[in-house]
Amino acid sequence: MTLTISYFAWVRERMGVAGEVIDPPADVTTIADLVGWLAARDDRGALAFAEPGRIRAAVGGTMVGPEAAIGDEIALFPPVTGG
Amino acid sequence: MTLTISYFAWVRERMGVAGEVIDPPADVTTIADLVGWLAARDDRGALAFAEPGRIRAAVGGTMVGPEAAIGDEIALFPPVTGG
Amino acid sequence: MIRVAVQTDAINVAAELDIHDAGGHGASAIFVGRVRGDDGLAELFLEHHPALTEAGLAELAHVAADRWSLSALTLVHRVGGMATGETIVLVLASSAHRAEALAATEFLIDRLKTDVMLWKRETFADGRVAWVEPRDGDHGRAERWD
Amino acid sequence: MIRVAVQTDAINVAAELDIHDAGGHGASAIFVGRVRGDDGLAELFLEHHPALTEAGLAELAHVAADRWSLSALTLVHRVGGMATGETIVLVLASSAHRAEALAATEFLIDRLKTDVMLWKRETFADGRVAWVEPRDGDHGRAERWD
Q1: What residues of chain D lie within 8 A of the CB of A12, using their CB?
Q2: Can you tell me the distance from the alpha carbon of C139 to that of C109, in angstroms, rounded to the nearest whole number?
Q3: In angstroms, rounded to a whole number, what is the distance separating the alpha carbons of residues B65 and B51?
Q4: Nearest 10 degrees: CA dihedral of D121, D141, D68, D87?
Q5: How many residue pairs bridge chain A and chain D with CB atoms within 8 Å of each other?
Q6: Would you say D5 and D48 are in contact if contact means Cβ atoms under 8 Å apart?
C-alpha cells in the first residue's frame, strides 16, 4: 500500500522532510505499526519516533489513535500547542 | 434623629421626590422600622413601600439588610438591575 | 492598572481596548453587554446613584484584582438613555493566564447585576414604560462566587 | 454567522469586532491571546497544517454553535512568525444571553489548545529554539467539556 505521509513540528525537523511517499510492508496495518516501522527504518526515524507515546496522527484529515488503520493520507506530529 | 433619605427607580417615582430630610419618631431604629413608618405615613409611602421585602437599602454608602440600624444618609431602592 | 468609569457617553469598545491593551497582556477576556431590541424596546434608561454606583464598581474591581492575578482591569458602565444595539457595559480583564482573565470577567459581569446601584427602565415602541425586574437566575449566578 | 480564519497577517481585534458586531447582539464574550515575552522570548512561530488547521477550527466552531445558542461566532488564529505582544488568537462569541456567550468562548479557547493542528516554536533572545510542550492543565480544562 502506497502512503503519503506528512510530518509536522519537531517530527518534521527530526525526519528532515515535510513529507514522503512510502510503501511499507504488508504487516504494517495500524498507526502504531507505521510509527514502529519508521523508528526502525533509519536513524532519523529512530530520532523522530523514539517515544511513540508522544506521537499523534491524522488519517484522511481525521485525528485518530495509535490503533487506527492506516490510510492513503497520513499526518504524524507531536501533541498540538495552539491557542 | 434627622435623616437624609434618597429614593431610586420606582421607589423614587412612587414617592414623587428624589429625596427628603425627615425626623422619624424615636422608636424607628432599623431600616425595617423606617420602611414601615414611611409606608404608614401617607399614600405615596403606602404605594412605594407596599412590599417591604422588595426594598433594598444603603446606609452611609454601604448596602445593608432590613435589620441594620438607620444612619444620617440612607438610600431606599428596588433590587438592582445593572449589567 | 484598574480603570472604572460610569458615563452617559457611548462606550467605544475599540478605544477602551486600546487603552487597556497598552501592556501586551498574555490573555484578555472581554464582555460586551448591549441593549437588546427583540421585544419592541425603543429606549433603555439606566438610573444610577451619583456616587455609590461608581464606588460599587470600583469595589467589585478591587475584589476581582485581589482574587485573581490580573495585569489590567477595565470596567465601564453606561448610564442614562440609550438605543437598541448600544453598549451598556464593558468588562475587560487581562492576565498572564487565560483561566484568570476568563474567571474574573465572568465574576464581574455576574456581580455587576446584583451588587451595584443601577436600575434599568424600558420604554417600548407602543409607549409602555416598565422598570426591569431582576431575574431569578442572576442571584444564583452571582452567589456562585461567594 | 460563523467566521473562521487562519492567517499569517496580524489580527486586527477592533476590525474583527466591527465585522462580528454588525447585528447588535445582546452579549458578546471575547478572548484575546497574545505572545508573552516574560522569559526572554524573541519570536513565536506557529506551524500549521495547510488544510486541517482551518478545518479543525471550523469543526470546533460548529460544535459550539450546536451546543450554545449563538447569534455570531468568530474564530481567528494567526500562524507563522510573530513578535511578543502580538495577537495569536481571537475568539468572539455573541448571544442574546451572557452565560451562552461566556461558556462558548471558554469552550473554544480550551479546545483550541488540544484539538487543532497547531504547534508553537519559541525562539529566545539568547538564540535558543524550543517547541512548546503541552501543559498538563490544558487537557484537564479541555476535558471539562466532554
Answers
A1: 47
A2: 12
A3: 15
A4: -30
A5: 63
A6: no
Asked if C141's CB is within 8 angstroms of D99's CB, the reply is yes
With an 8 Å Cβ cutoff, are A81 and D49 in contact?
no
The set of residues, in sequence order, having a beta carbon less than 8 Å from that of D122 and lying 6+ positions away, is D41, D43, D44, D45, D129, D130, D131, D132
**CA A68 vs CA A28, A52, C135, D99: distances in Å:** 11, 14, 50, 38
Nearest by CB to B61, from C33, C55, C116: name it. Answer: C55
* CA–CA dist B63, D140 (Å, integer): 39
Taking Cα atoms as reference points, which of D14, D7, D31 lies closest to residue D111?
D31
pLDDT tens-digit series, residues C67-111: 999 999 999 999 999 999 899 999 999 999 899 999 999 999 999
CB contact under 8 A, D24 and C96: no
Residue D96 contacts residue C38 (beta carbons within 8 Å): yes
Q: Grid coordinates 431610586 are at which residue?
A: B8
List CB contacts of C102: < 8 A, sequence separation 6 or more: C27, C29, C93, D31, D102, D105, D106, D109
Distance separating alpha carbons of residues C68 and D34, to the nearest angstrom: 19
More confident residue, A71 or C139: A71
The reported pTM is 0.89
Burial label for B21, CB within 10 Å (0-12, 13-18, 19+), is exposed
Those residues with Cβ within 8 angstroms of residue B12's Cβ, 6 or more apart along the chain or in another chain: B18, B77, C47
Who's near D144: CB < 8 A, 6+ residues apart? D110
B/A touch flag: 3 or more CB pairs below 8 Å: no
Cβ contacts (< 8 Å) between D96 and chain C: which residues? 36, 38
Task: Please report the DSSP string for A60-72 in residue order.
Answer: TTEEE-TTSBP-S
- Binding partners of B (≥3 Cβ pairs within 8 A): C
- Reference D99, options D29, D32, D146, D25; nearest CA is D29
Model pLDDT for residues D32-70, shown as the tens digit of each residue: 999 988 788 999 999 999 899 999 999 999 999 999 999
Which residue among A9, A61, A81 sits closest to D52, beta carbon to beta carbon?
Answer: A61
Cα separation, C25 vs C72, in Å, equals: 8
Q: Which three cell numbers stand for residue D115?
A: 484539538
